[in-house]
Amino acid sequence: MDFLSNFLMDFVKQLQSPTLSFLLGGMVLAALGSQLQIPESICKIIIFMLLAKIGLTGGMAIRNSNLTEMVLPVAFSILLGILIVFIARYTLAKLPKVKTVDAIATGGLFGAVSGSTMAAALALLDEQKVAYEAWAGALYPFMDIPALVTAIVIANIYLNKKKLAATAESSLEESLSKQSVAAGEYSDPQNYPSTRQQYLRLKQRPENARVKIWPIVQESLQGPALSAMLLGIALGLFARPESVYENFYNPLFRGLLSILMLVMGMEAWSRIGELRKVAQWYVVYSVVAPIVHGLMAFGLGMIAHYTTGFSMGGVVVLAVIAASSSDISGPPTLRAGIPSANPSAYIGSSTAIGTPIAIGVCIPLFFGLAQAIGGI
Protein backbone atom coordinates (compact mmCIF):
# COMPACT_ATOMS: atom_id res chain seq x y z
CA MET A 1 0.00 0.00 0.00
CA ASP A 2 2.88 2.33 0.82
CA PHE A 3 4.43 1.56 -2.57
CA LEU A 4 1.19 2.43 -4.39
CA SER A 5 0.74 5.69 -2.51
CA ASN A 6 4.39 6.62 -3.10
CA PHE A 7 4.04 5.78 -6.78
CA LEU A 8 0.92 7.94 -7.14
CA MET A 9 2.61 10.82 -5.33
CA ASP A 10 5.68 10.55 -7.54
CA PHE A 11 3.46 10.28 -10.62
CA VAL A 12 1.66 13.51 -9.69
CA LYS A 13 5.01 15.17 -9.03
CA GLN A 14 6.18 14.06 -12.47
CA LEU A 15 3.06 15.56 -14.03
CA GLN A 16 3.90 18.83 -12.30
CA SER A 17 7.61 18.66 -13.07
CA PRO A 18 8.99 20.73 -15.96
CA THR A 19 10.05 17.56 -17.74
CA LEU A 20 6.67 15.89 -18.20
CA SER A 21 4.52 19.03 -18.02
CA PHE A 22 6.38 20.57 -20.97
CA LEU A 23 6.07 17.27 -22.87
CA LEU A 24 2.30 17.19 -22.28
CA GLY A 25 2.10 20.90 -23.04
CA GLY A 26 3.70 20.31 -26.42
CA MET A 27 1.19 17.56 -27.19
CA VAL A 28 -1.71 19.86 -26.24
CA LEU A 29 -0.38 22.68 -28.42
CA ALA A 30 -0.02 20.33 -31.38
CA ALA A 31 -3.52 18.91 -30.80
CA LEU A 32 -4.96 22.45 -30.82
CA GLY A 33 -3.24 23.19 -34.12
CA SER A 34 -0.73 25.69 -32.74
CA GLN A 35 1.71 27.13 -35.27
CA LEU A 36 4.48 27.34 -32.68
CA GLN A 37 7.77 26.22 -34.17
CA ILE A 38 11.23 25.96 -32.68
CA PRO A 39 13.91 25.97 -35.38
CA GLU A 40 15.66 22.66 -35.91
CA SER A 41 19.06 24.32 -35.55
CA ILE A 42 18.15 25.42 -32.01
CA CYS A 43 16.97 21.89 -31.17
CA LYS A 44 20.30 20.50 -32.36
CA ILE A 45 22.18 22.94 -30.12
CA ILE A 46 19.99 21.99 -27.15
CA ILE A 47 20.52 18.27 -27.75
CA PHE A 48 24.26 18.78 -28.02
CA MET A 49 24.44 20.75 -24.78
CA LEU A 50 22.31 18.27 -22.82
CA LEU A 51 24.26 15.21 -23.94
CA ALA A 52 27.61 16.98 -23.67
CA LYS A 53 26.71 17.87 -20.06
CA ILE A 54 25.81 14.26 -19.28
CA GLY A 55 29.02 13.12 -20.96
CA LEU A 56 31.14 15.63 -19.03
CA THR A 57 29.56 14.46 -15.78
CA GLY A 58 30.29 10.84 -16.63
CA GLY A 59 33.83 11.51 -17.85
CA MET A 60 34.83 13.43 -14.73
CA ALA A 61 33.28 10.71 -12.56
CA ILE A 62 35.07 7.89 -14.41
CA ARG A 63 38.36 9.75 -13.99
CA ASN A 64 37.91 9.73 -10.23
CA SER A 65 36.30 6.31 -9.78
CA ASN A 66 37.28 2.68 -9.56
CA LEU A 67 36.71 1.21 -13.04
CA THR A 68 36.02 -2.26 -11.62
CA GLU A 69 32.75 -0.87 -10.19
CA MET A 70 31.55 -0.22 -13.74
CA VAL A 71 32.17 -3.71 -15.13
CA LEU A 72 28.88 -5.33 -14.10
CA PRO A 73 26.57 -2.37 -14.94
CA VAL A 74 28.31 -2.04 -18.34
CA ALA A 75 27.93 -5.78 -19.02
CA PHE A 76 24.24 -5.62 -18.06
CA SER A 77 23.73 -2.60 -20.32
CA ILE A 78 25.18 -4.45 -23.31
CA LEU A 79 23.11 -7.54 -22.52
CA LEU A 80 19.90 -5.52 -22.22
CA GLY A 81 20.46 -3.68 -25.50
CA ILE A 82 20.82 -6.98 -27.36
CA LEU A 83 18.10 -8.84 -25.47
CA ILE A 84 15.43 -6.19 -26.07
CA VAL A 85 15.84 -6.56 -29.83
CA PHE A 86 15.43 -10.35 -29.65
CA ILE A 87 12.33 -9.94 -27.48
CA ALA A 88 10.71 -7.79 -30.17
CA ARG A 89 11.81 -10.25 -32.84
CA TYR A 90 10.05 -13.16 -31.15
CA THR A 91 7.02 -11.36 -29.66
CA LEU A 92 5.99 -8.27 -31.63
CA ALA A 93 6.99 -9.86 -34.95
CA LYS A 94 4.65 -12.81 -34.29
CA LEU A 95 1.54 -10.66 -33.88
CA PRO A 96 -1.05 -10.25 -36.65
CA LYS A 97 -0.41 -7.62 -39.36
CA VAL A 98 3.06 -6.85 -37.97
CA LYS A 99 5.88 -7.11 -40.50
CA THR A 100 8.97 -8.84 -39.14
CA VAL A 101 11.41 -6.21 -40.37
CA ASP A 102 9.29 -3.41 -38.84
CA ALA A 103 9.17 -5.30 -35.52
CA ILE A 104 12.95 -5.72 -35.52
CA ALA A 105 13.46 -2.01 -36.21
CA THR A 106 11.03 -1.16 -33.41
CA GLY A 107 12.95 -3.45 -31.05
CA GLY A 108 16.18 -1.71 -32.05
CA LEU A 109 14.73 1.69 -31.25
CA PHE A 110 13.37 0.51 -27.88
CA GLY A 111 16.67 -1.19 -27.10
CA ALA A 112 18.55 2.03 -27.84
CA VAL A 113 18.53 4.90 -25.35
CA SER A 114 16.71 8.22 -25.20
CA GLY A 115 19.07 10.94 -24.04
CA SER A 116 16.14 13.16 -23.08
CA THR A 117 14.51 10.46 -20.93
CA MET A 118 17.80 9.75 -19.21
CA ALA A 119 18.28 13.47 -18.61
CA ALA A 120 14.80 13.63 -17.07
CA ALA A 121 15.63 10.76 -14.70
CA LEU A 122 18.90 12.38 -13.65
CA ALA A 123 17.10 15.68 -13.06
CA LEU A 124 14.56 13.94 -10.80
CA LEU A 125 17.26 12.18 -8.80
CA ASP A 126 19.09 15.50 -8.35
CA GLU A 127 15.88 17.24 -7.24
CA GLN A 128 15.20 14.48 -4.71
CA LYS A 129 18.84 14.57 -3.59
CA VAL A 130 19.23 10.85 -4.33
CA ALA A 131 22.82 9.67 -4.65
CA TYR A 132 23.87 7.84 -7.79
CA GLU A 133 27.13 7.17 -9.58
CA ALA A 134 28.01 10.20 -11.67
CA TRP A 135 29.23 7.81 -14.37
CA ALA A 136 25.78 6.19 -14.62
CA GLY A 137 24.99 8.40 -17.62
CA ALA A 138 27.99 6.89 -19.38
CA LEU A 139 26.10 3.58 -19.61
CA TYR A 140 24.18 5.16 -22.52
CA PRO A 141 26.45 4.03 -25.41
CA PHE A 142 26.91 0.53 -23.95
CA MET A 143 23.18 -0.12 -24.37
CA ASP A 144 22.52 2.09 -27.38
CA ILE A 145 25.11 0.80 -29.86
CA PRO A 146 24.58 -2.97 -29.24
CA ALA A 147 20.81 -2.52 -29.69
CA LEU A 148 21.11 -0.67 -33.00
CA VAL A 149 23.80 -3.02 -34.34
CA THR A 150 21.80 -6.12 -33.32
CA ALA A 151 18.62 -4.79 -34.94
CA ILE A 152 20.32 -3.97 -38.24
CA VAL A 153 22.20 -7.28 -38.38
CA ILE A 154 19.12 -9.39 -37.54
CA ALA A 155 16.97 -7.46 -40.01
CA ASN A 156 19.47 -7.85 -42.83
CA ILE A 157 19.92 -11.56 -42.11
CA TYR A 158 16.15 -11.98 -42.19
CA LEU A 159 15.82 -10.00 -45.44
CA ASN A 160 18.67 -11.92 -47.08
CA LYS A 161 17.12 -15.26 -46.12
CA LYS A 162 13.74 -14.10 -47.39
CA LYS A 163 15.28 -12.91 -50.65
CA LEU A 164 17.22 -16.16 -50.96
CA ALA A 165 14.10 -18.26 -50.42
CA ALA A 166 12.12 -16.21 -52.95
CA THR A 167 14.92 -16.42 -55.52
CA ALA A 168 15.32 -20.15 -54.96
CA GLU A 169 11.60 -20.71 -55.37
CA SER A 170 11.52 -18.62 -58.54
CA SER A 171 14.54 -20.42 -59.91
CA LEU A 172 13.01 -23.80 -59.08
CA GLU A 173 9.75 -22.93 -60.85
CA GLU A 174 11.68 -21.76 -63.89
CA SER A 175 13.82 -24.88 -63.95
CA LEU A 176 10.79 -27.15 -63.62
CA SER A 177 9.06 -25.41 -66.53
CA LYS A 178 12.12 -25.92 -68.69
CA GLN A 179 13.14 -29.29 -67.28
CA SER A 180 12.50 -31.17 -70.50
CA VAL A 181 14.83 -28.83 -72.36
CA ALA A 182 17.45 -28.51 -69.65
CA ALA A 183 17.60 -32.24 -68.97
CA GLY A 184 18.77 -32.75 -72.51
CA GLU A 185 21.97 -30.90 -71.68
CA TYR A 186 22.97 -33.71 -69.29
CA SER A 187 24.07 -37.15 -70.47
CA ASP A 188 22.56 -38.68 -67.34
CA PRO A 189 19.30 -37.24 -65.87
CA GLN A 190 20.65 -38.03 -62.40
CA ASN A 191 23.28 -35.34 -62.92
CA TYR A 192 20.59 -32.67 -63.27
CA PRO A 193 21.05 -30.17 -60.38
CA SER A 194 18.82 -30.87 -57.39
CA THR A 195 16.83 -28.20 -55.59
CA ARG A 196 19.39 -28.37 -52.77
CA GLN A 197 22.25 -27.77 -55.20
CA GLN A 198 20.42 -24.81 -56.75
CA TYR A 199 19.81 -23.40 -53.26
CA LEU A 200 23.51 -23.69 -52.37
CA ARG A 201 24.52 -21.96 -55.59
CA LEU A 202 22.15 -19.09 -54.85
CA LYS A 203 23.48 -18.84 -51.33
CA GLN A 204 26.98 -18.28 -52.65
CA ARG A 205 25.95 -15.21 -54.63
CA PRO A 206 27.51 -11.85 -53.58
CA GLU A 207 24.19 -10.27 -52.56
CA ASN A 208 23.87 -12.89 -49.81
CA ALA A 209 27.16 -11.93 -48.17
CA ARG A 210 27.22 -11.42 -44.42
CA VAL A 211 26.28 -8.06 -42.97
CA LYS A 212 29.33 -6.01 -41.99
CA ILE A 213 29.25 -4.91 -38.36
CA TRP A 214 31.83 -2.13 -38.26
CA PRO A 215 30.06 0.28 -40.67
CA ILE A 216 26.97 0.07 -38.46
CA VAL A 217 29.01 0.79 -35.31
CA GLN A 218 30.81 3.62 -37.10
CA GLU A 219 27.54 5.19 -38.23
CA SER A 220 26.19 4.99 -34.67
CA LEU A 221 29.32 6.59 -33.24
CA GLN A 222 29.17 9.38 -35.82
CA GLY A 223 25.52 10.15 -35.02
CA PRO A 224 24.88 13.52 -33.35
CA ALA A 225 23.73 12.08 -30.02
CA LEU A 226 26.57 9.66 -29.39
CA SER A 227 29.14 12.09 -30.81
CA ALA A 228 28.11 14.71 -28.24
CA MET A 229 28.00 12.16 -25.43
CA LEU A 230 31.38 10.63 -26.26
CA LEU A 231 32.98 14.05 -26.70
CA GLY A 232 31.78 15.01 -23.24
CA ILE A 233 33.11 11.76 -21.76
CA ALA A 234 36.50 12.24 -23.44
CA LEU A 235 36.80 15.86 -22.27
CA GLY A 236 35.74 14.89 -18.76
CA LEU A 237 38.36 12.13 -18.72
CA PHE A 238 41.36 13.87 -20.24
CA ALA A 239 40.74 17.60 -19.73
CA ARG A 240 39.80 19.81 -16.79
CA PRO A 241 36.37 21.17 -17.78
CA GLU A 242 35.11 21.77 -14.23
CA SER A 243 34.88 25.58 -14.58
CA VAL A 244 32.88 25.64 -17.82
CA TYR A 245 30.79 22.74 -16.51
CA GLU A 246 29.80 24.56 -13.31
CA ASN A 247 29.29 27.98 -14.89
CA PHE A 248 27.61 27.04 -18.16
CA TYR A 249 26.44 23.46 -18.78
CA ASN A 250 25.10 22.61 -15.33
CA PRO A 251 23.02 25.79 -14.70
CA LEU A 252 21.36 25.61 -18.15
CA PHE A 253 20.61 21.89 -18.05
CA ARG A 254 17.03 21.91 -16.71
CA GLY A 255 15.89 24.91 -18.75
CA LEU A 256 17.16 23.42 -21.99
CA LEU A 257 15.59 20.07 -21.11
CA SER A 258 12.17 21.71 -20.71
CA ILE A 259 12.42 23.23 -24.21
CA LEU A 260 13.40 19.87 -25.68
CA MET A 261 10.43 18.23 -23.94
CA LEU A 262 8.09 20.81 -25.50
CA VAL A 263 9.46 20.00 -28.97
CA MET A 264 9.21 16.27 -28.33
CA GLY A 265 5.60 16.64 -27.18
CA MET A 266 4.64 18.34 -30.43
CA GLU A 267 6.53 15.70 -32.39
CA ALA A 268 4.85 12.91 -30.43
CA TRP A 269 1.38 14.19 -31.30
CA SER A 270 2.23 14.44 -34.98
CA ARG A 271 3.45 10.83 -34.94
CA ILE A 272 0.21 9.48 -33.46
CA GLY A 273 -1.46 9.95 -36.84
CA GLU A 274 1.27 7.90 -38.50
CA LEU A 275 0.93 5.16 -35.90
CA ARG A 276 -2.73 4.71 -36.83
CA LYS A 277 -1.66 3.62 -40.31
CA VAL A 278 0.11 0.50 -39.00
CA ALA A 279 -1.01 -2.43 -36.83
CA GLN A 280 -2.64 -1.54 -33.52
CA TRP A 281 -0.33 -4.01 -31.82
CA TYR A 282 2.38 -1.34 -31.93
CA VAL A 283 0.32 0.68 -29.46
CA VAL A 284 0.14 -2.28 -27.07
CA TYR A 285 3.87 -2.93 -27.45
CA SER A 286 4.74 0.75 -26.89
CA VAL A 287 2.83 0.77 -23.59
CA VAL A 288 4.00 -2.60 -22.25
CA ALA A 289 7.59 -2.77 -23.53
CA PRO A 290 9.07 0.19 -21.58
CA ILE A 291 7.73 -1.23 -18.31
CA VAL A 292 8.92 -4.79 -19.05
CA HIS A 293 12.35 -3.65 -20.23
CA GLY A 294 12.73 -1.38 -17.21
CA LEU A 295 11.78 -4.17 -14.80
CA MET A 296 14.36 -6.46 -16.40
CA ALA A 297 17.01 -3.77 -15.98
CA PHE A 298 15.89 -3.06 -12.42
CA GLY A 299 16.37 -6.73 -11.57
CA LEU A 300 19.84 -6.82 -13.10
CA GLY A 301 20.66 -3.55 -11.38
CA MET A 302 19.72 -5.10 -8.04
CA ILE A 303 22.15 -7.94 -8.73
CA ALA A 304 24.87 -5.32 -9.28
CA HIS A 305 23.70 -3.51 -6.14
CA TYR A 306 24.11 -6.56 -3.92
CA THR A 307 27.33 -7.81 -5.52
CA THR A 308 29.31 -4.65 -6.25
CA GLY A 309 27.57 -1.93 -4.24
CA PHE A 310 25.96 -0.27 -7.25
CA SER A 311 23.80 2.48 -5.74
CA MET A 312 19.99 2.35 -5.79
CA GLY A 313 20.05 5.64 -7.67
CA GLY A 314 22.21 3.95 -10.28
CA VAL A 315 19.72 1.06 -10.42
CA VAL A 316 16.97 3.59 -11.20
CA VAL A 317 19.08 5.14 -13.97
CA LEU A 318 19.78 1.71 -15.51
CA ALA A 319 16.06 0.84 -15.39
CA VAL A 320 15.04 4.15 -16.96
CA ILE A 321 17.49 3.99 -19.86
CA ALA A 322 16.31 0.43 -20.57
CA ALA A 323 12.70 1.65 -20.49
CA SER A 324 13.50 4.52 -22.83
CA SER A 325 13.51 4.38 -26.62
CA SER A 326 15.86 6.36 -28.81
CA ASP A 327 14.47 9.60 -30.22
CA ILE A 328 17.68 11.24 -31.47
CA SER A 329 20.40 8.88 -32.72
CA GLY A 330 18.31 5.77 -33.35
CA PRO A 331 15.89 6.85 -36.13
CA PRO A 332 18.50 8.04 -38.67
CA THR A 333 20.70 5.02 -37.96
CA LEU A 334 17.81 2.61 -38.56
CA ARG A 335 16.63 4.51 -41.64
CA ALA A 336 20.06 3.95 -43.18
CA GLY A 337 20.58 0.41 -41.86
CA ILE A 338 17.07 -0.98 -42.50
CA PRO A 339 15.68 1.15 -45.34
CA SER A 340 12.84 -1.29 -46.01
CA ALA A 341 11.39 -0.85 -42.50
CA ASN A 342 8.43 1.50 -42.08
CA PRO A 343 9.45 4.62 -40.05
CA SER A 344 5.79 5.23 -39.14
CA ALA A 345 5.89 1.97 -37.18
CA TYR A 346 9.11 2.27 -35.21
CA ILE A 347 9.40 6.06 -34.88
CA GLY A 348 5.69 6.46 -34.20
CA SER A 349 5.82 3.77 -31.51
CA SER A 350 8.80 5.38 -29.84
CA THR A 351 8.01 9.09 -30.03
CA ALA A 352 4.23 9.06 -29.74
CA ILE A 353 3.84 6.49 -26.95
CA GLY A 354 7.13 5.00 -25.77
CA THR A 355 8.75 8.25 -24.61
CA PRO A 356 5.70 9.59 -22.70
CA ILE A 357 5.31 6.19 -21.00
CA ALA A 358 9.02 6.07 -20.10
CA ILE A 359 8.98 9.58 -18.64
CA GLY A 360 5.51 9.70 -17.11
CA VAL A 361 5.15 6.13 -15.84
CA CYS A 362 8.53 4.40 -15.70
CA ILE A 363 10.53 7.12 -13.93
CA PRO A 364 8.11 7.37 -10.96
CA LEU A 365 7.57 3.58 -11.05
CA PHE A 366 11.23 2.68 -10.65
CA PHE A 367 11.88 5.55 -8.27
CA GLY A 368 8.98 4.23 -6.17
CA LEU A 369 10.34 0.67 -6.35
CA ALA A 370 13.71 1.86 -5.09
CA GLN A 371 11.98 3.72 -2.24
CA ALA A 372 9.92 0.63 -1.37
CA ILE A 373 13.05 -1.52 -1.19
CA GLY A 374 14.50 1.09 1.13
CA GLY A 375 17.67 1.95 -0.71
CA ILE A 376 16.86 5.66 -1.13
TrEMBL record:
<feature type="transmembrane region" description="Helical">
    <location>
        <begin position="45"/>
        <end position="62"/>
    </location>
</feature>
<protein>
    <submittedName>
        <fullName>Sodium-dependent bicarbonate transport family permease</fullName>
    </submittedName>
</protein>
<feature type="transmembrane region" description="Helical">
    <location>
        <begin position="74"/>
        <end position="92"/>
    </location>
</feature>
<feature type="transmembrane region" description="Helical">
    <location>
        <begin position="281"/>
        <end position="304"/>
    </location>
</feature>
<feature type="transmembrane region" description="Helical">
    <location>
        <begin position="351"/>
        <end position="373"/>
    </location>
</feature>
<keyword id="KW-0472">Membrane</keyword>
<feature type="transmembrane region" description="Helical">
    <location>
        <begin position="137"/>
        <end position="159"/>
    </location>
</feature>
<dbReference type="InterPro" id="IPR010293">
    <property type="entry name" value="Sbt_1"/>
</dbReference>
<feature type="transmembrane region" description="Helical">
    <location>
        <begin position="20"/>
        <end position="38"/>
    </location>
</feature>
<keyword id="KW-0812">Transmembrane</keyword>
<dbReference type="Pfam" id="PF05982">
    <property type="entry name" value="Sbt_1"/>
</dbReference>
<feature type="transmembrane region" description="Helical">
    <location>
        <begin position="104"/>
        <end position="125"/>
    </location>
</feature>
<keyword id="KW-1133">Transmembrane helix</keyword>
